[in-house]
Design brief:
Elements lengths: L1 H33 L4 H8 L2 H21 L5 H33 L9 H24 L2 H31 L7 H30 L6 H9 L3
Length: 228
């Protein structure tokens, strides 16, 4: 009976991770729309903070309860619970960055992001796909799929470079207002960093499946030091 209850706890935890992953990827796509001036998407993201906080709290509480009440945790179960505790932070940061994108866009003029609209949409679509695949790889313990997500970050890096090039062109042209250009580049950087967090989730998916890590500890800690 104890094992059945434990299995239910693990299943509940996995379901919560899927829900949080779905919310995060949905918000990333909405952030792409918000970055192009979609006020409805912007409002939806800004109003979704409490839902994200509840999901994070529920997952962390379930992890702690499992670690405290189901001792000793060993093998695959221990890897799953410990990795879940770590990826919830990445999902929360992705969701938080979506709100940052929406807030920045709300402060810009209506036409400020016109030149970067296509790039922002491409970046949000790529980042959202990475989050979807990373969470699925984690929940299914699919190491091969997780490795594919980590490799696919190159596409998002390329799109960020394109955004930088466009901003340079805008600086030379003097349009839009120079004041808005750092904010536009910041939006692009947020999308690029969402991909970094998807990579980290994928790294924990590999850990869950194999007990090994692809990214170094330094790769994980760098964002945290920068104030994630």
């Amino acid at each position: 009976m104890a094992r059945l209850e434990f299995s239910k706890q693990l299943n509940d935890m996995e379901a919560l991770v899927k829900r949080f992953g779905d919310k995060a990827s949905s918000d990333v796509r909405a952030a792409g729309l918000a970055a192009t001036g979609d006020k409805g998407a912007e409002t939806g993201i800004l109003e979704g903070r409490k839902a994200a906080e509840r999901l994070r709290s529920n997952i962390e509480s379930t992890c702690l309860d499992t670690m405290l009440l189901q001792q000793p945790l060993v093998g695959a179960d221990l890897r799953f619970v410990s990795a879940t505790f770590r990826i919830v932070s990445d999902l929360a940061q992705i969701d938080s960055m979506c709100r940052d994108v929406a807030f920045i866009e709300s402060e810009l003029s209506k036409k400020a992001s016109d030149r970067l609209s296509d790039t922002f949409m491409s970046m949000s679509a790529r980042a959202a796909a990475m989050v979807d695949s990373a969470v699925d790889a984690f929940c299914t313990a699919d190491a091969d799929k997780a490795r594919e997500v980590i490799s696919s970050d190159d596409d998002l890096d390329r799109l960020y470079s394109e955004a930088e090039d466009i901003v340079v062109e805008l600086i030379k042209a003097g349009k839009p207002s120079p004041k808005s250009l750092p904010e536009l580049l910041m939006i692009a950087k947020y999308f690029e960093r969402m991909g970094d967090h998807a990579q980290r989730i994928s790294d924990w998916a590999v850990f869950r499946a194999t007990g090994e890590r692809i990214l170094s500890v330094g790769d994980h800690d760098a964002d945290e030091v920068q104030g994630e």
